[in-house]
Amino acid sequence: MRKRCTPATCLRTAGLSTLRAALALNLVWIGRLKFEDYEVENIRALVTSHPMFAPLVTKLGEQRLARLIGVAEIALGTLIAAKPLAPRASALGSLGAAGMFATTLSFLATTPGVWQENHKAPKLSIVGQFLIKDTVLLGAALVTLADALEDARC
Q1: Residue 51's closest CA among 90, 124, 95, 107?
Q2: Axis-axis angle for helices 62-81, 37-48 (nearest 10)
Protein backbone atom coordinates (compact mmCIF):
# COMPACT_ATOMS: atom_id res chain seq x y z
CA MET A 1 0.00 0.00 0.00
CA ARG A 2 1.31 3.44 -0.96
CA LYS A 3 1.68 6.09 1.74
CA ARG A 4 -0.46 9.15 1.43
CA CYS A 5 1.36 12.42 0.81
CA THR A 6 0.66 15.00 3.51
CA PRO A 7 0.57 18.65 2.38
CA ALA A 8 3.90 19.31 4.11
CA THR A 9 5.52 16.25 2.54
CA CYS A 10 4.17 17.12 -0.90
CA LEU A 11 5.41 20.71 -0.57
CA ARG A 12 8.83 19.52 0.61
CA THR A 13 9.11 17.14 -2.33
CA ALA A 14 7.98 19.80 -4.81
CA GLY A 15 10.31 22.36 -3.25
CA LEU A 16 13.32 20.04 -3.40
CA SER A 17 12.59 19.13 -7.00
CA THR A 18 12.19 22.79 -7.96
CA LEU A 19 15.33 23.77 -6.06
CA ARG A 20 17.38 21.01 -7.71
CA ALA A 21 16.13 21.86 -11.20
CA ALA A 22 16.69 25.59 -10.69
CA LEU A 23 20.21 25.06 -9.30
CA ALA A 24 21.13 22.75 -12.17
CA LEU A 25 19.65 25.14 -14.75
CA ASN A 26 21.47 28.15 -13.24
CA LEU A 27 24.80 26.34 -13.33
CA VAL A 28 24.40 25.04 -16.88
CA TRP A 29 23.13 28.36 -18.19
CA ILE A 30 25.78 30.48 -16.47
CA GLY A 31 28.43 27.95 -17.45
CA ARG A 32 27.40 28.29 -21.07
CA LEU A 33 27.78 32.06 -20.84
CA LYS A 34 31.45 31.65 -19.94
CA PHE A 35 32.03 30.89 -23.64
CA GLU A 36 30.85 34.39 -24.61
CA ASP A 37 33.34 37.28 -24.87
CA TYR A 38 31.15 39.65 -22.85
CA GLU A 39 31.09 37.19 -19.92
CA VAL A 40 34.89 36.91 -20.02
CA GLU A 41 34.91 40.69 -19.65
CA ASN A 42 32.28 40.56 -16.88
CA ILE A 43 34.37 38.27 -14.67
CA ARG A 44 37.72 39.99 -15.37
CA ALA A 45 37.80 42.10 -12.18
CA LEU A 46 36.73 39.10 -10.09
CA VAL A 47 39.36 36.64 -11.29
CA THR A 48 42.28 39.03 -11.73
CA SER A 49 42.05 40.30 -8.14
CA HIS A 50 41.56 36.91 -6.46
CA PRO A 51 44.69 35.19 -5.06
CA MET A 52 43.55 31.76 -6.26
CA PHE A 53 42.51 32.82 -9.77
CA ALA A 54 45.03 35.56 -10.64
CA PRO A 55 47.86 33.04 -11.25
CA LEU A 56 45.49 31.02 -13.44
CA VAL A 57 44.68 34.12 -15.49
CA THR A 58 48.41 34.60 -16.03
CA LYS A 59 48.95 30.96 -16.95
CA LEU A 60 45.83 30.22 -19.02
CA GLY A 61 44.60 33.64 -20.11
CA GLU A 62 41.19 35.12 -19.38
CA GLN A 63 39.30 33.31 -22.13
CA ARG A 64 40.64 29.83 -21.34
CA LEU A 65 40.06 30.31 -17.62
CA ALA A 66 36.49 31.48 -18.25
CA ARG A 67 35.87 28.41 -20.42
CA LEU A 68 37.37 26.12 -17.79
CA ILE A 69 35.06 27.65 -15.19
CA GLY A 70 32.17 27.25 -17.64
CA VAL A 71 32.93 23.56 -18.20
CA ALA A 72 33.06 23.03 -14.44
CA GLU A 73 29.72 24.81 -13.95
CA ILE A 74 28.07 22.79 -16.73
CA ALA A 75 29.46 19.53 -15.32
CA LEU A 76 28.29 20.35 -11.79
CA GLY A 77 24.82 21.34 -13.00
CA THR A 78 24.53 18.15 -15.02
CA LEU A 79 25.60 16.02 -12.06
CA ILE A 80 23.11 17.75 -9.76
CA ALA A 81 20.31 17.11 -12.26
CA ALA A 82 21.23 13.41 -12.46
CA LYS A 83 19.86 12.60 -9.00
CA PRO A 84 16.99 10.36 -10.16
CA LEU A 85 19.48 8.16 -12.04
CA ALA A 86 22.63 8.59 -9.98
CA PRO A 87 22.17 10.04 -6.48
CA ARG A 88 25.86 9.59 -5.56
CA ALA A 89 26.96 11.50 -8.65
CA SER A 90 24.38 14.16 -7.82
CA ALA A 91 25.75 14.42 -4.28
CA LEU A 92 29.23 14.93 -5.75
CA GLY A 93 27.87 17.68 -8.03
CA SER A 94 26.18 19.41 -5.10
CA LEU A 95 29.34 19.18 -3.01
CA GLY A 96 31.35 20.69 -5.86
CA ALA A 97 28.78 23.45 -6.30
CA ALA A 98 28.90 24.24 -2.57
CA GLY A 99 32.67 24.59 -2.83
CA MET A 100 32.33 26.74 -5.92
CA PHE A 101 29.79 29.08 -4.29
CA ALA A 102 31.93 29.37 -1.15
CA THR A 103 34.82 30.35 -3.41
CA THR A 104 32.79 32.94 -5.32
CA LEU A 105 31.62 34.43 -2.02
CA SER A 106 35.28 34.99 -1.16
CA PHE A 107 35.31 37.49 -4.04
CA LEU A 108 33.42 39.80 -1.67
CA ALA A 109 36.73 40.22 0.19
CA THR A 110 39.10 40.30 -2.80
CA THR A 111 37.37 42.29 -5.54
CA PRO A 112 37.86 46.06 -5.62
CA GLY A 113 34.62 48.05 -5.74
CA VAL A 114 32.39 45.45 -4.05
CA TRP A 115 31.61 47.87 -1.23
CA GLN A 116 30.40 51.40 -1.88
CA GLU A 117 32.57 53.99 -0.23
CA ASN A 118 31.44 57.00 1.80
CA HIS A 119 28.54 55.33 3.61
CA LYS A 120 28.19 54.93 7.37
CA ALA A 121 27.15 51.28 7.14
CA PRO A 122 28.60 48.80 4.64
CA LYS A 123 26.71 49.05 1.33
CA LEU A 124 27.14 46.62 -1.54
CA SER A 125 27.88 47.92 -5.02
CA ILE A 126 26.33 46.37 -8.13
CA VAL A 127 29.20 43.83 -8.17
CA GLY A 128 28.62 43.04 -4.50
CA GLN A 129 24.92 42.56 -5.14
CA PHE A 130 25.79 40.18 -7.98
CA LEU A 131 28.00 38.13 -5.64
CA ILE A 132 25.75 38.04 -2.58
CA LYS A 133 23.15 35.91 -4.41
CA ASP A 134 25.62 33.04 -4.11
CA THR A 135 24.64 32.72 -0.44
CA VAL A 136 21.26 31.42 -1.63
CA LEU A 137 22.89 29.16 -4.23
CA LEU A 138 25.26 27.82 -1.55
CA GLY A 139 22.25 26.97 0.61
CA ALA A 140 20.58 25.27 -2.37
CA ALA A 141 23.70 23.20 -3.01
CA LEU A 142 23.81 22.09 0.62
CA VAL A 143 20.11 21.13 0.59
CA THR A 144 20.47 19.17 -2.66
CA LEU A 145 23.61 17.52 -1.26
CA ALA A 146 21.74 16.32 1.83
CA ASP A 147 18.82 15.12 -0.30
CA ALA A 148 21.07 13.19 -2.69
CA LEU A 149 23.01 11.63 0.19
CA GLU A 150 19.74 10.38 1.70
CA ASP A 151 18.84 8.64 -1.56
CA ALA A 152 22.37 7.35 -2.11
CA ARG A 153 22.17 5.32 1.12
CA CYS A 154 19.17 3.33 -0.10
Answers
A1: 107
A2: 100
